[in-house]
Amino acid sequence: MDLAWAKEHLHKQREAFLDVEPPPAVEFFRGGLYATHANPKRPLTIDAYSLWPTSEAIIRELAPERLPGGDHTNREWPEAALMAVIYTLSLIDQQPTIAEQTKLVVSKLDPTGLHPSVWNSAAPLWEASRQDAVNAAARAVNSQLQTKLGITELSEVDLTNQAFSGDPPAAQRPRLRFAGHQPSSDSFKSRMNGARGLGQACFQGVRNIGNHEHDVRWSEQEALEYLALFSVLARWIDECTIEQETHGAS
Length: 250
Description:
By secondary structure, this protein is mainly α. The protein has 8 helices and 4 strands, in the order αββαααααβααβ.
């Protein structure tokens, strides 16, 4: 809804309600209005009635709980409708403040709280190139996984798929395992599938695009979201233990 248009219309509605003889006995206070019924039978103008359907629709969307009950013949209706209009106008006036407060809450996400390997790699490049910063974080997470498993010859995606494979470990192919899940359980399968999917999203969906598409221009918000993906993957790598192939007695 166009709030500027809604505000203009409700102002007209308010003036139409107040344009009576004698005027209604009202007492304004911060954030709203008290109204008495000193003149409950005062006649409303034609404008007050003609403007109301649109005003009603606006109030129904922005403040439905304030819609007056009954109809125009109810002696209480004019005062209730006027109060609904003024209340809704106050809500519209508060919208910039509410939006700013919401923005401030969201912006409290601190990139320094991301996994250290992610932000420590990205930070030096953050102001110069978001794309290079994300690529640096990707390399750091890949190096973290290589170091943990002792495998350096596989690509990022292949290494992630091998690490989080649900298959038993094989020769020179150790696996990462989340604690507390039996290999036969659905939870085990879900976590393995999810980790492999996240790894593919990070390295194929983000890193490859950022590394090979030179016309990519990520905004700060987009780049921060991509770093968050790598941060989750890095934390999962830290969380997991290594399962090696077991050899039977010869």
